[in-house]
Specification:
Helix content: 10-25%
CATH class: Alpha Beta
Largest sheet: 4 strands, mixed
Number of domains: 1
Number of strands: 8
Strand content: 25-35%
Radius of gyration: 17 Å
Shape: globular
Length: about 170
């Protein structure tokens, strides 16, 4: 049963470019919209968290309400709200993933490691055809920066996806 057959290609609404080793990342999106999804991350040091997310993970400070919250963003629909907390959190088992392009993975890993040595794991190649970098942020959020790779329809990854009902297009 091919469950994906009931759906259609809607890539035109996504800011994520087609997978390619030289794909260009979209610009940071500065527009205001009704957020279809966002992550709220409690932090005991708002300034340090903003610094890490902006210099390490490539977000911008879209706006700040002093001592209340900072709204961070990368691409459209990649929104994070940092809010004050009384105490630091332990790293979570829960992860949040943000799309990036392949040529950003090493740059993000290096920037994060310079800010917080030992905070990254990977990058690693996944069976679902991405390259993933895991980052533990200062407030204990487990962030996965994930970049899709071009899919070879004859690869092990294509067979893995096919087994789950996703058939790779043939050119």
């Amino acid at each position: 049963m091919n469950l994906v057959a009931d759906y259609y290609n809607a890539f035109e609404i996504s800011p994520v470019p087609a997978p390619s080793p030289d794909a260009k990342a979209p610009e940071v999106y500065r527009g205001i919209y009704g957020m279809p999804m966002f992550v709220t991350v409690p932090t005991s040091d708002l300034a340090a968290s903003v610094d890490f997310w902006t210099r390490g993970l490539g977000f911008i400070d879209l706006f700040t309400i002093p001592d209340r919250l900072t709204h961070l963003r990368r691409w459209a629909f990649q929104d994070v709200l940092l809010v004050p907390a009384d105490h630091p959190a332990e790293p979570s088992a829960l992860t949040v993933s943000f799309a990036c392009v392949q040529n950003q993975i090493d740059e993000i890993a290096q920037a994060c490691a310079e800010l917080r040595p030992g905070c990254t794991t990977g990058p690693r190649t996944t069976p679902w055809n991405t390259v993933d970098l895991e980052v533990i942020t200062p407030e204990g959020a487990r962030v996965i920066m994930t970049a899709a790779r071009p899919l070879d329809p004859d690869s092990a990854e294509a067979r893995y996806l096919e087994a789950g009902g996703i058939t790779a297009p043939r050119e």
